[in-house]
Write a sequence for this structure.
């Protein structure tokens, strides 16, 4: 979230290089989650993965890391891949937010002698608060419903430590064929998500009115 | 690529905004440029590496430690994916078929719905609109188990039509919302002029409105295509028959391999094939995509 906001600050002004950067950062958003997970599964592979290779060649890692046998490493790998994929989403929302503020307010502050960071801290950040909340909510909902990344990259391993709710439902319904249990789990998940998405609706309604 | 500027409100693009951003000195501008280039490199790296791996000879794609650049250009990996199981063409056409049905259903339902919601006096219009958007709040991932059971009963499980129906339902709230906004932005005078000339509301829709809401239609089509092409979970659950897999499911099956060993080269070739249409569409129709995205995400 913080990274998305930083990227938005960086790329909000409409200069050519920044627009290109923005377009590139957004690019992974249009790629399928399944496909991007497979791509990163390969990059993180211990034998042929180039993520390890680059890290070793840059001197950050001493030797190739094993990513998918420990739960915390596997989670880190998934988080890196998902960040790559969705960062453009948050960034673009922030850019839209920031661009809608700038102009008069910013110029007024500039005349009052505020420097760049003061303007970010006192003007852009408070005025983007709603977008930040909204994007956070969208990410939370998205994470609760995560499936592809884990199905493809970790397979729920090691020892079921990286199962997510949707993956658990899938596992129960379609692998163990406990369909009734799976359906019951589905209802619980729906209710939980409903709470968050109602919040999201309330928030976005407010931002429309203001 | 400059299309990005059109999509978002550009309050900053005043006359002062000539060479540099307000209040920014030259060294900082260079620093920002350097950071931008570094970010571009990092973001593009995975895709570039994947493309490079896909054109390595298959044996080189398997070697450890891997090489950065392919030693010789080879399309063997693509040939392998092409001949995988029922043949790549089958899977691509499966995906295209599902995406095609999804697009047709989405447009057929969202254009009249958007028109109706924007232009007619309907009792309880706002309530209908909210009801139509309500599915956005319920996670479809959680509903797949019951959905699969009922689809299996009516024989829609394991069929492209069934999968396309699910994709349509997923895409519909966004499509209706977008179409309603497109119709609402058309000035009412046009409609009145058409009415004076004796045109029925259906004729007005076809002859006057459709050309005007074309951007909306393009955006709906675009999103329906990308969503359907990429959708993974439903396709995984609904499609049990190997010949009816869509491309993302094919990729997982390529990874599983025939003898347990992963064929990395072929996998990357498959990844590139599956990324390609999305990236092309995004780069060519960026304006529509970003506009629709901003429209839809903020709801």
């Amino acid at each position: 979230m913080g990274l998305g906001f930083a990227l938005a600050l960086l790329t909000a002004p409409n200069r050519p290089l920044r627009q290109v950067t923005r377009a590139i950062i957004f690019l992974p958003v249009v790629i399928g989650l399944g496909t991007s997970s497979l791509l990163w599964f390969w990059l993180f592979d211990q034998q042929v993965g180039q993520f390890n290779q680059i890290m070793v060649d840059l001197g950050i890692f001493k030797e190739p890391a094993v990513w998918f046998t420990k739960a915390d490493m596997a989670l880190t790998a998934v988080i890196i891949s998902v960040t790559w994929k969705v960062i453009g989403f948050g960034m673009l929302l922030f850019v839209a937010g920031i661009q809608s503020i700038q102009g008069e307010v910013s110029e007024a502050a500039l005349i009052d002698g505020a420097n760049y960071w003061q303007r970010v801290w006192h003007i852009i950040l408070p005025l983007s608060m709603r977008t930040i909340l909204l994007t956070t909510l969208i990410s939370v909902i998205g994470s609760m419903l995560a499936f592809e990344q884990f199905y493809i990259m970790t397979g729920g391993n090691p020892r079921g430590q990286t199962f997510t709710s949707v993956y658990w439902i899938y596992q129960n319904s379609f692998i163990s064929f406990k369909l009734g249990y799976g359906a019951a789990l589905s209802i619980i998940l729906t209710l939980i998500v409903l709470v968050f998405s109602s919040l999201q609706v309330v928030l976005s309604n407010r931002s429309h009115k203001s | 690529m400059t299309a990005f500027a059109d999509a978002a409100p550009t309050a900053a693009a005043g006359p002062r905004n000539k060479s540099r951003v307000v209040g920014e000195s030259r060294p900082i501008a260079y620093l920002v440029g350097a950071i931008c280039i570094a970010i571009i490199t990092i973001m593009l790296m995975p895709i570039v590496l994947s493309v490079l791996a896909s054109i390595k000879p298959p044996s080189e794609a398997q070697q450890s430690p891997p090489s950065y650049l392919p030693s010789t250009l080879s399309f063997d990996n693509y040939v392998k994916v092409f001949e995988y199981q029922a043949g790549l063409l089958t899977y691509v056409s499966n995906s295209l078929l599902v995406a095609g049905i999804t697009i047709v259903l989405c447009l057929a339902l969202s254009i009249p719905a958007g028109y109706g919601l924007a232009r007619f006096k309907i009792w309880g219009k706002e309530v209908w609109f909210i009801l139509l958007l309500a599915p956005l709040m319920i996670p479809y991932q959680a509903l797949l188990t019951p959905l699969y059971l009922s689809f299996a009963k009516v024989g829609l499980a394991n069929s492209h039509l069934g999968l396309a129906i699910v994709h349509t339902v997923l895409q519909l709230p966004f499509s209706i919302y977008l179409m309603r906004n497109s119709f609402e932005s058309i000035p009412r005078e046009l409609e009145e002029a058409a009415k004076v000339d004796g045109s029925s509301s259906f004729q007005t829709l076809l002859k006057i409105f459709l050309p005007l809401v074309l951007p909306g239609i393009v955006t709906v089509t675009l999103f329906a295509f990308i969503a359907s092409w990429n959708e993974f979970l439903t396709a995984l659950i609904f499609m049990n028959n190997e010949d009816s897999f869509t491309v993302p499911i094919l990729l997982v099956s390529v990874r599983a391999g025939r003898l347990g060993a992963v064929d990395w080269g072929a996998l990357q070739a498959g990844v590139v094939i599956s990324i390609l249409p999305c990236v092309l569409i995004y780069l060519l129709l960026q304006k529509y995509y970003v506009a629709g995205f901003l429209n839809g995400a903020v709801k």
Chain A has a mean pLDDT of 75. The first helix of chain A runs from residue 2 to 11.
